[in-house]
Please model this.
Amino acid sequence: MFESLKIKNIKKETSNSVSIEFIIPSENTNDYSFKAGQFLTLKANINGEDVRRSYSICSSPESGELKVVVKQIPNGIFSTYANSQLKAGDILEVAKPSGTFFLETKSENKKKYVLIAAGSGITPIISILKTILLVEPSSSIDLFYGNKTQNQTIFKNELENLNSIYEGRLNLNFIYSEEKGESRFHTGRIEGRKIKKIFKKHSPIVNVNEVFMCGPQQMTENVKNLLINKFNFPKNKINFELFT
Model:
């Protein structure tokens, strides 16, 4: 079931992505409550065509905000519309939050989380990250976030700000495939040896309680297979979302 929601704010996050924040009417507050990691399905009539697309919520449940990011994809009908035409005050049809990729928090938790994202896969991951930092004060996070370049890194400034606020609890690793990162480890793709280094050196597997990841299927499969087959990491502690 879709509801007509007004866009509160639309912001250019990178040259090819925008965030869209919705106004939630007071009578719909319960309908649009969500868990960190879930997504929204948006509907619009574009050039006479009924177009529906799903996007992960990037705000945290505690923020009171309902926000998604739409990244421009080549010839993408909805992503082109969102990045070039939508503006504050416009109306979109928005379904209730859904999805089985989400975080269950407990304030008493004292966990080490490893979060792995690539490109727009950061959208559910940043919601999970902010929720952990807010709700589980004794938990800590190692984030490994891959992009082509710094300029294409969605939420780069926000993540750096969070890294300063939660120093000691958030360990931030930007990895760039088309420009030099801060070290050899931080340069290239999240694949092969780099995945092994994550769990051997940067986030020793013995200290890790749970893994959340979102990005390309090959990256996800490689991480999952390494965790299960080499490190005997519990399958039920590996959480992932695939964008298709």
